[in-house]
Specification:
This protein is an all-beta fold. The protein is built from no helices and twelve strands. A three-stranded antiparallel beta sheet has the order 2-1-5, with no helix packed on it. Strands 6-7-9 form a three-stranded antiparallel beta sheet, with no helix packed on it.
Length: 144
């Protein structure tokens, strides 16, 4: 029997789109029967989250079963970094071919304009905040 699109049959390290056919077999000298291959079933395909490097300031949030076929994961950048402006979405979907639906985004530093120079300034830090779909970098303590 063919597995559904997001499922596959695994046995002894081999993977197939087909699972063994189950048959009802009559027991000898009995009116009862039994099913063959009851332990052989299709399992849901998964994308490999190891394809998403946990470096270059990019990381992902994996919720329950989000790496499974047709499910999505959200990727985000570390503090003071943002997803490259050329990327339309920060969500990846696992396809039936066990690959993500688009290229992995890259993270780029959020740049802040230099603050006004102040004598004996307090420590300043570039911090990230979100306004809708935009990530904005700001200097803290710039007007003190």
């Amino acid at each position: 029997a063919r597995c559904d699109e997001c499922y596959e049959y695994k046995m002894n390290g081999d993977v197939s789109d087909y699972a063994p056919t189950r048959q009802c077999v009559k027991k000898a000298n009995s009116p009862d029967g039994y099913w063959t291959n009851t332990d052989k079933m299709c399992t849901r395909k998964e994308c490999n989250v190891d394809q998403i490097p946990q470096e270059n300031h990019l990381h992902y949030k994996v919720m329950h079963d989000t790496r499974k076929c047709n499910q999505t994961i959200d990727v985000e950048c570390d503090c003071c970094y943002k997803i490259n402006d050329e990327v339309i979405s920060d969500t990846l979907q696992c396809l039936p071919a066990k690959f993500w639906d688009k290229e992995l985004p890259t993270c780029v530093p959020i740049t802040c304009s230099e603050p006004v120079v102040i004598e004996n300034p307090p420590s300043k830090q570039c911090v990230k905040r979100r306004e809708g779909d935009l990530e904005i970098g700001e200097w803290t303590n710039q007007d003190k």
